[in-house]
Design goal:
- This protein is of the alpha+beta class and about 250 residues long.
- It folds into 2 domains: about 110 residues, Poly(a)-polymerase, middle domain (Orthogonal Bundle), CATH 1.10.1410.40; about 120 residues, Beta Polymerase, domain 2 (2-Layer Sandwich), CATH 3.30.460.
- Helix content is about 45%, strand content about 20%.
- The protein is built from 9 helices and 9 strands.
- Strands 1, 2, 3, 4, 5, 6 and 7 form a 7-stranded mixed sheet that branches. The chain has a two-stranded antiparallel ribbon with strand order 8-9.
- Strand 3 and strand 4 form a beta hairpin.
- Helix 6 crosses helix 7, helix 6 crosses helix 8 and helix 8 crosses helix 9.
- The two termini are about 15 Å apart.
């Protein structure tokens, strides 16, 4: 019965890709192409929509902006110029860790600029604002890791809980935590696996280091402070203690 309830929520919050695609193709891509000019390699979905982990109640669209290795500006300058451009477009930009958060036609969009590394097809350098440094990573590998994990249902439910609880928990960090929590567990058991995920977050989030599967030099868990991790862990414990799933996801 619990599995059926949670499966119903997944259907309830299924994303209609047509609206998202329209905003991307008609509004966002033309602006990005004009801004980047000849240095643009491509702009593609890179977040929850590409991975199959999006919910309609909190649709977040990540667009990865792949720039040529010949782009002359530093990564920090690229990040700053994209922020300034988004201000000019009226998108109410917010400087985040590796992305510029904007609002376009009521959709929340994260623009992630990256400079391609010469000689490597999918490897890019990204500006890391929190450390005022840079990261080398492979966004295509991120997408494949999550999309092919067999855990997209549980991830969507964890994201729904995050949304309803109003938590600051970056999506890729959350996704990797779910994969860690459910390693070796049976597939398709939504209720049991959601409970296991909450238990794992409550017990482990504050101390477990989560690394980038594309580059183990990148510690994804550094994207939250200890206080932010504690808030998520405590919320997970509270949710897990509820007698019914409908008490914390609906």
């Amino acid at each position: 019965m619990a599995d059926a309830y949670l499966a119903g929520l997944l259907n309830k919050y299924e994303v209609d890709p047509t609206r998202v695609q329209a905003v991307a193709s008609q509004i966002i891509y033309p602006r990005i192409a004009h801004w980047a000019g000849s240095y643009l390699v491509e702009a593609t979905y890179s977040g929850s929509i590409a991975k199959g982990t999006a919910n309609s109640c909190s649709t977040d669209m990540d667009i990865f902006i792949s720039l040529s290795s010949q782009t002359p500006e530093t990564l920090k300058e690229i990040f700053g110029k994209l922020y300034t451009a988004a201000q000019g477009w009226g998108w109410a930009p917010r400087q985040q860790n590796v992305s510029i958060g904007v609002t376009v036609d009521v959709l929340s969009v994260d623009l992630v600029p990256g400079r391609k590394q010469a000689g490597y097809q999918n490897w890019h350098s990204l500006y890391h604002r929190r450390g005022d440094s840079w990261r080398q990573t492979n966004v295509s590998m991120h997408i494949d890791t999550v999309r092919n994990s067999g855990r997209t249902g549980e991830i969507r439910l964890a994201k729904l809980w995050r949304h309803l609880a109003g938590l600051n928990f970056p999506s890729f960090y959350l996704e990797l935590c779910v994969l860690e929590a459910l390693s070796g567990r049976r597939y398709g058991e939504l209720a049991a696996n959601l409970s296991l995920t909450l238990e794992w977050l409550h017990a482990n989030l504050e101390t477990r280091r989560i690394m980038d599967p594309a580059n183990t030099a990148n510690c994804i868990s550094d994207d939250l402070t200890q206080a932010e991790k504690r808030a998520v862990a405590q919320a997970a414990g509270i949710a897990r203690a509820r007698p019914y799933y409908s008490d914390f996801v609906w």
